[in-house]
């Protein structure tokens, strides 16, 4: 696999990558690790066969390892679609075809080298079109909580499943959810799990096959999967908008630990364009609407996912329709905890359709987005997979003036200019901290890479450094806290 990187090599934590081999690796899920990011996906062979794909990047976007896991006979098809990190290991979920029957697939992966420690296939038969498809994983004290789908013999249809396994993939219990278990016209899938106060928030997609409409449900359950309340977001009507408003549900997430924030788009179509308004509704812990806000019209935002962080800042990741025909770009926007707009940005090349597949928030205040693009020209059809990592303001080159950690006071480097030694003072250093210091010259070449533990005053011998300007980038426990220009005078 070969990737292209745009931006300075010392611009840590932000990058834009495009995979340059057509019909190949597609990102389906992204997981942060203390050393970097795991890309989980699918290795397309351009036909009916395909393989699972894993790739580990460091925080700067450099490839640490990659793995294509060839699917076994006879179908030669498996896909990885979800993942999590827990107590030193990655757990990856997806599915595999076996004799034209799709089965759930779980893997345990060593983050240091990508070695697969075990695989387990499970899921009841017979299988309908949407059965046995893992879409989300969440670790808890008992093991792995899995969002999936499966066949229900009572309704003879596909139902959403919440499956609890231990850390060896043995099933402990399973709950099923459906729009209506009494009829066969629904095909239901559990798509998302998030921890919420005293339980979990689930998102379920339900296809009413008889009229070919998709319903979206948000469901609050306790720690054992028992349902507390649910809402059908297709039929939801807010008290703050006109009754004839058309809502298109996009995503929901936990907000302020107990509440739920949901995202809708409201379309505005003219003869020449399609724009949308973003519409957020906040529900309390009992599912009652307590607040809502509509944002100004934008070019159509498609397949949006909603995220919040520990500061209750709000992020929307998606792709945006900028012009006709087939001109999409990956998109990110951020709001503060009061739902006030902060910034938005889109990423990619003009006149190429770039499709959002997956995203996650990162511990340094940025976002990581995965997708692919599509270029259609006579005799030249191709798609490239894309990864976009931003800083805290949506930039793909890190803004060190605005995106430093606020947990530590100003780092002091002295003397500056220096000659034989330079000292670095990191005030208020947390206990058991790992400090990394990377020094780059003006063309971005790494000159020195140093690691220290629990040392708030560091002295570096610079006798072997050439005279000139350097960029000194300092990390504490994986977070960049400073980027300083320093000068060796003689």
Largest sheet: 6 strands, antiparallel
Low-confidence stretches: 1-12
Strand-residue proportion: over 45%
The number of distinct helices, counting runs of at least 4 residues, comes to: 0
Distance between the termini: 43 Å
Rg for CA atoms: 24 Å
Structural class assignment: mainly beta
Shape: globular
Mean pLDDT: 86
Helical residues, percent: under 10%
Describe it for me?
The protein is built from no helices and 37 strands. Strands 1, 2, 27, 28, 29 and 30 form a six-stranded antiparallel sheet that branches. Strands 3-4-5-6 form a four-stranded antiparallel sheet, with no helix packed on it. A four-stranded antiparallel sheet has the order 7-8-9-10, with no helix packed on it. The chain has 490 residues and is mostly beta strands. It has strands at 3-6, 15-19, 25-33, 36-44, 50-58, 63-69, 78-86, 89-98, 101-109, 116-122, 136-140, 143-152, 157-165, 171-177, 186-196, 199-208, 213-221, 227-232, 248-255, 259-269, 274-283, 289-299, 301-308, 314-323, 327-335, 341-347, 353-361, 367-377, 380-382, 385-389, 412-414, 421-425, 434-440, 446-453, 457-461, 468-476, 479-488.
